[in-house]
TrEMBL record:
<dbReference type="InterPro" id="IPR007357">
    <property type="entry name" value="PhrB-like"/>
</dbReference>
<feature type="compositionally biased region" description="Basic and acidic residues">
    <location>
        <begin position="183"/>
        <end position="192"/>
    </location>
</feature>
<dbReference type="InterPro" id="IPR014729">
    <property type="entry name" value="Rossmann-like_a/b/a_fold"/>
</dbReference>
<dbReference type="InterPro" id="IPR036134">
    <property type="entry name" value="Crypto/Photolyase_FAD-like_sf"/>
</dbReference>
<dbReference type="Pfam" id="PF04244">
    <property type="entry name" value="DPRP"/>
</dbReference>
<protein>
    <submittedName>
        <fullName>Cryptochrome/photolyase family protein</fullName>
    </submittedName>
</protein>
<feature type="compositionally biased region" description="Acidic residues">
    <location>
        <begin position="167"/>
        <end position="181"/>
    </location>
</feature>
<dbReference type="GO" id="GO:0016829">
    <property type="term" value="F:lyase activity"/>
</dbReference>
<dbReference type="InterPro" id="IPR052551">
    <property type="entry name" value="UV-DNA_repair_photolyase"/>
</dbReference>
<feature type="region of interest" description="Disordered">
    <location>
        <begin position="164"/>
        <end position="192"/>
    </location>
</feature>
């Protein structure tokens, strides 16, 4: 028997490697995976380097590891079955839709067998989620409460610690002007990472990568977790929705790349944060609760939404949005300060934090009318932590309101929101308070135009009543025609790369 270790399952603390410490491991680093899309260069380095480090750690621990660097996954399996005819492989269930079936076919064609077991890199099993859903609506908040009860995290005698499930109201502050976020730890590339970097040296890219500094080993990932708990957890909550100039990290955890590779387990991440909260007086409950909600709530929820929603979710387009993804997402060439900062972060390090993702990058795509699947592909290839199971529910359903599973209204916002939650507007060429005219913020005209364009779909949504009342006011004041002309002009300029 051999344990097949996929590139996002780099753990021997749970799953078949933990259950069978003496069995051989098989790892396949397939170049075709990395070249199929124009991935951010840091993502290619992250995955390959983390795999090679994990291979070395397994070998140091005494395990026999067959490691193949090959063009395609099929080539790697050919090499394995040449050496071990008829071998029985065991693998944790892959996260991507259809991957299990493709993998089984590849193994069977080569005379082997494949045993697919529970993917233990997540907290909530498919059976657990499906059982919960039998008596519940598909709503994140309800699932999150279920997970709090199941895990016992931040619970006391069956009730949430502090008396409330959710402290979002306390987590919408913006930092003072003189706020200096803690320094972000960087992990210098070692020889293994440099080797990978040399191998990808000739790859052309749309990105503008800074020096690579993401954790690629278990020990560096643990260090990143400890650093977050010690230095950034305190202010994570209050400033989690804020956007500040060039402060790309603020107090965000930056742990998703390591979590999504399996280097960290969600259980240990959450427990470390709760331990810090319980041991110290300076970590507010709102901070740790906000963090716990992201990890045991949202992350697990979208994984199961994806599992249950594919393949339909991968094709959903409720608003019939068909515009091609504009070049600004790749080149960042724009005078819009908020969009410029978000894309700049993606070009440099394959990262933007969650409010930039939702309220700038997704919001702009939604209002512009971009094809949700083009935007989903962009999130998948451009982000260091982007995988189909993450980006599809977050982009298609939540960001673009293209599915009909859990989103109860579109996340559409004008400059008003961005101005309130950031300092971008103060230094922007555009005026956040203007809707029409050359210097008016593009978000504003696009926002009202979006509401007018999709009125038949959205007006009956009771959560949209207030905004449609405002739209009526504009219509009554004969202002809507001018706004929609401005929106058409903005779209032309976006398409021409001149916004
Ligand atoms: S004015 Fe508009 S484009 Fe400029 S930063 Fe504000 S929201 Fe963004």
């Amino acid at each position: 028997m051999t344990v097949l270790v996929l590139g996002d399952q780099l753990t021997d603390r749970v799953g078949p490697l933990a259950d069978a410490p003496d069995e051989r491991a098989l790892m396949i680093e397939a170049r075709a995976f990395a070249t199929r899309h124009p991935y951010h260069p840091h993502k290619r380095v992250l995955v390959s380097s983390a795999m090679r480090h994990f291979r070395d750690e397994l070998r140091e621990a005494g395990r026999d590891v067959d490691y193949h660097v090959v063009d395609s996954f099929a080539d790697g399996l050919d090499a394995h079955f040449d050496a071990h005819p008829g071998d029985a492989l065991t693998v944790m269930r892959p996260s991507s839709h259809g991957a299990t079936e493709r993998l089984r076919d590849l193994v069977t064609e080569r005379g082997g067998t494949l045993d697919v077991v529970t993917n233990e890199t997540f907290l909530c099993t498919p059976e657990g989620f499906d059982g919960w859903l039998e008596g519940n609506r598909l709503r994140h908040e309800d699932f999150y409460r279920y997970m709090r009860r199941e895990t016992g995290y931040l619970m006391a005698d069956g009730d949430p610690v502090g008396g409330a499930w959710n402290y979002d109201e306390e987590n919408r502050e913006t930092p003072p002007d003189d706020y200096e976020p803690p320094e972000v730890p960087r992990y210098e590339p070692d020889e293994t990472t440099r080797e990978v970097q040399r191998e990808w040296d000739d790859a052309e890219s749309w990105a503008d990568p800074e020096a690579f500094g993401w954790p690629v080993t278990r020990s560096d990932a643990l260090d990143a977790l400890a650093d977050f708990c010690e230095h950034r957890l305190r202010d994570f909550g209050p400033y989690e929705d804020a956007m500040v100039g060039d402060e790309w990290a603020l107090d965000h955890a930056l742990l998703s790349p390591a979590l999504n590779l399996g280097l960290l387990h969600p259980r240990e991440v959450v427990e470390a944060a709760i331990d810090a909260y319980e041991a110290r007086d300076d970590v507010p409950l709102a901070s740790v609760e906000g963090f716990v909600r992201q990890v045991i709530g949202w992350r697990e929820f979208v994984r199961h939404v994806y599992r249950r929603g594919m393949p339909a979710l991968g094709e959903a387009n409720r608003l019939d949005a068909t515009r091609p993804l504009p070049d600004v997402y790749w080149d960042g060439d724009t005078a819009m300060a908020c969009l410029d900062a978000a894309v700049d972060g993606v070009r440099k390090r394959g990262y933007a934090h969650h409010i930039q993702r939702l309220m700038v990058l997704s919001n702009f795509g939604l209002l512009y009318g971009v094809d949700p699947h083009e935007l989903n592909r962009w999130f998948h290839v451009a982000f260091i932590d982007g995988y189909h199971w993450v980006s599809t529910p977050n982009t298609v359903e939540m960001g673009q309101y293209a599915g009909d599973r859990f989103a109860t209204k579109p996340y559409a916002a004008s400059a008003n929101y961005i101005d309130r939650m950031s300092d971008h507007c103060a230094g922007c060429q555009y005026d956040p308070d203007a809707t029409v005219g050359d210097g008016a913020c593009p978000f504003n005209a696009l926002y009202w135009d979006f509401l007018a364009e999709h009125e038949s779909e959205l007006r009956s949504n009771h959560r949209m009543g207030l905004v449609y009342a405002h739209l009526d006011d504009k219509r009554d004041a004969d202002a809507l025609g001018g706004i929609r002309e401005r929106a058409a002009e903005v779209r032309r300029r976006v398409r021409d790369g001149d916004v």
